[in-house]
Structure formats: structure tokens, C-alpha cells
Write a structure and sequence with these properties.
Layout: H1 2-44, H2 57-70, H3 78-87, H4 91-98, H5 105-120, H6 123-135, H7 145-164, H8 174-181, H9 186-202, H10 209-223, H11 234-239, E1 250-251, E2 259-260, H12 294-298, H13 301-311
Antiparallel strand pairs: 1-2
Helix pairs in contact: 3-4, 3-5, 6-7, 7-10
Length: 339
């Protein structure tokens, strides 16, 4: 009886072990099928190139991630990895990588990676390079949605990279944040004051770099809206009446602005065509126009020109406030060429 029970237990144990082996084989088969499908999909995708790294701190994180995902994960030979590392670097970085080719494959690649990290994976250098790139951006003009969008992308890239390397909080000091805000147009800086006050007074916390990046992102999205992004005020300017009423066509004078009535000739007497204006001759200081001054007429052309230049008068009508090119009188005096 005991023998029968032992035989049954052995059979059950064998069945259980067979079942476990079958499940393990099925799992391995599923893994192989998944790898095959992944490989098939990879061969159908376009080739992705690793960027060449020349030593720019801003590009370091991007380069390392690309190299690890596209080369290191798909290559099992450290010797091959090292040659790829030399291929995808340039300048001083490439020279540093070449110095490891004389070592053994294992030691050479590991040493190359350590040298890269030692010389270029320095958080403070990366953060400083990002901040310098942002703060040296030309000040953005009002309503320039494209420039603001580019600036927003720079801020987001800086935020993501420095957050990844754990250095974002190092930029969150008043000077750095103020330098970033100074790139924005004046109306936007005024809006930011309200946002900053709300964060400090109502939310009871310090302002972060992410706050500025989010603020600029929203403003850039608004300005680049395909329909309502641009505000056209031409129709308003054309249709809105002047609150001060109609104005005279010409305003100029010798000692101030003088309104000339349409149709009146400035060569008339001192009071004709002018309201509330007593002419004072800049040549003899008498009460008449310069064009009526006998002393001025007797001067040489050179002396007339000197007086007109000194007093800032129009070469044509001898009044202040404009130049001959835009003078409203056609061939009025021309004393500078008269004999």
C-alpha cells in the first residue's frame, strides 16, 4: 500500500516538473518571438545617427544618451564600442578618446568613459553653459511670437537637462532668474511681476526656474496661436477719429511751431496766415520774416547758408521745424542759391 502511494507521489512530482519545464520553454519562446518582432520593427525604422560630440557642455547629456542607446546597448565588444566612441567625437575630445586605443579592449573603453565623465560631465559647467546661452539671447521684442517660442524651447531644454543631472536648484537664485526675465519684452515683464507676487504672497513658496519656464511657455503659445495670436490694429487706427479734432496740414516756425492755414502764403505780412505769431528775424532781430530782411538779402550765398545751418532753418522757406525735402512750399524762396 505504501509502495503504491510512493509511486503516485513520484508520478505527481514528475508531472509537476514536466509542467514547469513546459512553462519555462513557453516563456523562452515568447521572449524569442518578442525579440524577433522587435528586431523586425527596428530594421524597418530609419537609421538614427549619433551626434558628434566636440566638447560643448550643453550637448554632453544628449550625446551620452544617444551613444548608450544606439551603440553601447547594441554592441557587446568593448573594443568596438571604443572605436565608435572615437568616430563620434571630434577635436580635443576625439584626441582624448584616441589615447585609449593602445590599451586592452576592456580597459580602453572603461578608461575612455571615465575620461569623458571627468572632463565633460561636470554639472556646474553644464548649468553655466545653459545659463550663458539663455542670457545672451537678444531681448525679445513685443508681439514676436516666433522669438518667444524659441526662447521657451531653450528654457524647457535647460530645465529638463539640469533636472536630470540634479543641478536645477543651483540656478534658482535672484540674479540668475532676473537675467532670464530680462530677456522678455517689457509688457511681459510687467505680467511676470504679478505672477511672481502670487507665488510668493499667496502660494507661500520661493520662485523656481520651472515657474519662469511655464510662464514663458504659456505666453509663447498665446502669441503663436494660428488664429488669435496676432492682433491687427490697422482698422482701428484708420477709423478712429482724432480726439483733438482736425489738425492743420503744416506746423512749423522759427521760434516754435506755427500753424499755416491752407491757401495762405507765408510770404505775406507777419500776421497773415499765422495765428498768434509775431515773427522775429534771426538776422537783425526785427519784427519781420527772414525772407523780408534786407540785411539777409545783401549777404553772400555762403553767409546765408551759414546762418540757415546755424539756426536749423529750412533751405526753402527759411522756417524751423522741417527740412527742404519735406517743405510744403514749392520753390518758395531758395535764397541759398539766389544771387
Amino acid at each position: 500500500m505504501h509502495d503504491m502511494l510512493d509511486i503516485q507521489r513520484q508520478q505527481q512530482q514528475q508531472s509537476y516538473e514536466l509542467l514547469q519545464m513546459q512553462q519555462a520553454r513557453d516563456h523562452q519562446l515568447q521572449q524569442l518571438l518578442g525579440q524577433h518582432q522587435q528586431l523586425a520593427l527596428t530594421t524597418m525604422l530609419p537609421n538614427v545617427k549619433v551626434p558628434t560630440y566636440s566638447g560643448d557642455p550643453v550637448e554632453y547629456c544628449h550625446f551620452i544618451r544617444s551613444f548608450e542607446n544606439l551603440i553601447e546597448s547594441k554592441t557587446f565588444s568593448n573594443n568596438t564600442r571604443l572605436y565608435y566612441l572615437v568616430q563620434y567625437t571630434s577635436g580635443d575630445v576625439q584626441e582624448l578618446m584616441r589615447s585609449c586605443l593602445s590599451m586592452s579592449s576592456e580597459e580602453g573603453y572603461n578608461t575612455a568613459r571615465k575620461l569623458l565623465k571627468q572632463h565633460y560631465e561636470q554639472s556646474y559647467r553644464i548649468a553655466t553653459a545653459y545659463l550663458e546661452r539663455i542670457t545672451k539671447t537678444p531681448e525679445i521684442k513685443a508681439e514676436d511670437g516666433e522669438a518667444l517660442q524659441r526662447f521657451s524651447v531653450q528654457l524647457t531644454s535647460c530645465k529638463n537637462t539640469l533636472k536630470e543631472i540634479g543641478y536645477l536648484n543651483k540656478l534658482e537664485n535672484p540674479d540668475s532668474l532676473q537675467n532670464v526675465i530680462s530677456r522678455l519684452p517689457y509688457p511681459m515683464r510687467r505680467n511676470w511681476r504679478d505672477v511672481a507676487d502670487d507665488i510668493i504672497s499667496n502660494k507661500k513658496r520661493e520662485i523656481t526656474f520651472e515657474d519662469i519656464a511655464s510662464f514663458v511657455e504659456v505666453k509663447a503659445r498665446i502669441l503663436t496661436h494660428p488664429i488669435f495670436g496676432k492682433i491687427n490694429n490697422e482698422s482701428r487706427n484708420k477709423s478712429s477719429p482724432d480726439p483733438k479734432g482736425p489738425r492743420s496740414r503744416y506746423t512749423f516756425g522759427m521760434n516754435g511751431k506755427v500753424d499755416l492755414d491752407a491757401g495762405k502764403d507765408v510770404e505775406n505780412t507777419g500776421k497773415t496766415g499765422m495765428r498768434g505769431y509775431n515773427p522775429r528775424c534771426p538776422m537783425c532781430n526785427n519784427n519781420h520774416l527772414l525772407s523780408r530782411c534786407d540785411m539777409f538779402k545783401k549777404e553772400t550765398v555762403e553767409n546765408r547758408r551759414k546762418l540757415v545751418r546755424k539756426r536749423g532753418l529750412c533751405d526753402n522757406c527759411l522756417f524751423q521745424g522741417h527740412i527742404a525735402r519735406v517743405c510744403p512750399k514749392e520753390s518758395f524762396v531758395r535764397y541759398l542759391v539766389a544771387k
